[in-house]
Design goal:
Length: 385
């Protein structure tokens, strides 16, 4: 990741030290047996989030003034990359740091930043964002959850589903309609703090085909009252614009995870085929294996170059929606293709859950669906043509 700074610069050295500290933390706190236990239990323990907060990894790019570590997007990228390399999808730091906390940073009032950012940075609060509903995913304009004015606040009614960190979250950004007649302009974002929200209920933790350690849940809002101070920003009806403004970075974050996983799959597979034998030679010695891996390595290199360029654009504030959509769509498709090839080269072992490549195969599938399905990415790209 040092390539994200001028080689030999103080910043490159600082990023290297940061990456070392992330690696040390994950080696110590997330050994393979603990990761396996998280998969069995369907959740990462809260204490792990708290430790990550103590180490300054949560909200690492939030300014020190609000309790963050004062880093920038590069620090988030390093953290997200290392987590993705170790199959710790259950620790949804990409969502906490890369999606939800930035809503408060970018759209919160000064009072809201002072109220919530310190707890989002020190691990007291785990974040979630609740947009999807049982009947609405891609087509956000048609959400049914409502927020009606009531005294000095709003009453929220509705149901959300597929919510990452749903069981753990103490800070939930909820998309709701403040006006049912206004389409996009009728959507607002509210902060619901479950501890103080009567009528809020967590539903089932959903069983998934992959990312088993990630808590993905249903949430119910039954006449939940929140004060006006919990409306994100200063006025109603800005929710969709607030979401859209943050989407390029969110999509890039998914691409960062996908790239880390496909690179890891390649490394694992190259090592595997150099030890496994068939017909008196290593699997690696078959020309088919070499060609498949040569193709995968080439595409992974192209993809890395594009991704790093997108990260530089994001840092410069010039990353266009369409470029971010291209990165999300193309790198997650590549992730699926490369991991599939890698699994094939593992033979039956690849199909076993005890083998990493099999687990990666399951975990990778969701990248093409969430954060905006890849078809939506193509639609966005096509609109710019
Ligand atoms: C593990 C996991 C975690 C998630 N975490 C969260 C979360 O934290 N918060 C949250 O709010 N949501 C979350 N989601 C939901 C996710 O964001 C949605 O799944 C996604 O937005 C797609 O919506 P949908 O599943 O309702 O698909 P639908 O909107 O029903 O679409 C189904 C399929 O139809 C096709 N399609 C849809 N629209 C178009 C179109 N315009 N053109 C062409 N094809 C189209 C696509 O192939 C799409 O995959 C999560 C989902 C999963 C699986």
């Amino acid at each position: 990741m040092q390539e994200l700074a001028e080689p030999g610069s103080v910043l490159a050295e600082e990023l290297r030290m940061f990456e070392d500290s992330v690696v040390r933390f994950l080696d110590h706190e997330a050994p393979p047996e603990r990761i396996a236990a998280w998969r069995r239990e369907g959740q990462v323990e809260r204490s792990f989030w708290a430790k990550a907060g103590e180490q300054g990894f949560l909200g690492v790019s939030v300014s020190a003034e609000y309790g963050g570590a004062g880093g920038d997007f590069r620090h988030d990228v390093i953290l997200i990359d290392q987590v993705a390399r170790r199959e710790i999808a259950g620790f949804a730091v990409a969502l906490h740091n890369g999606v939800v906390t930035p809503y408060v940073v970018a759209h919160g009032t000064e009072e809201q930043k002072r109220r919530w950012l310190p707890s989002l940075c020190n691990g007291k609060m785990v974040a979630a964002v609740a947009m999807s509903e049982p009947d609405v995913g891609s087509d956000l304009r048609n959400i049914r959850t409502t927020a009606r004015r009531d005294g000095e606040g709003y009453r929220i009614n509705g149901q959300k589903t597929f919510i990452t960190n749903g069981q753990l979250a103490d800070f939930i950004v909820v998309a709701a309609k403040t006006s049912v007649h206004e389409g996009a302009k009728g959507i607002s974002l509210f902060i619901v703090e479950p501890e103080t929200a009567d009528g809020f209920r967590r539903g089932r933790k959903l069983e998934k085909i992959g990312c088993e350690a990630q808590d993905t849940s249903e949430l119910f809002f039954d006449d939940v009252w929140v004060p006006s101070a919990n409306l994100l920003g200063i006025e109603e009806g800005r929710g969709l614009r607030q979401l859209m403004a943050e989407l390029p970075r969110e999509r890039l974050v998914i691409a960062v995870q996908a790239q880390a996983m496909l690179e890891t799959a390649l490394e694992e597979t190259i090592a595997y085929v150099k030890t496994r034998k068939a017909f008196g030679q290593h699997i690696f010695d078959f020309q088919n294996t070499q060609f498949k891996l040569a193709e995968a390595k080439t595409e992974a290199t192209i993809s890395r170059t594009f991704l790093n360029d997108c990260i530089r654009q994001a840092l410069a504030g010039t990353l266009a929606d369409t470029t971010a959509a291209m990165a999300k769509y193309w790198i997650t498709e590549l992730q699926g293709r490369i991991i599939d090839v890698c699994l094939q080269l593992h033979g039956a072992y690849g199909y076993m859950s005890e083998y990493r490549i099999g687990r990666m195969y399951k975990d990778a599938r969701v990248s093409r669906i969430y954060g905006g399905a890849n078809e939506i990415m193509k639609m966005l790209i096509a609109r710019s043509l």
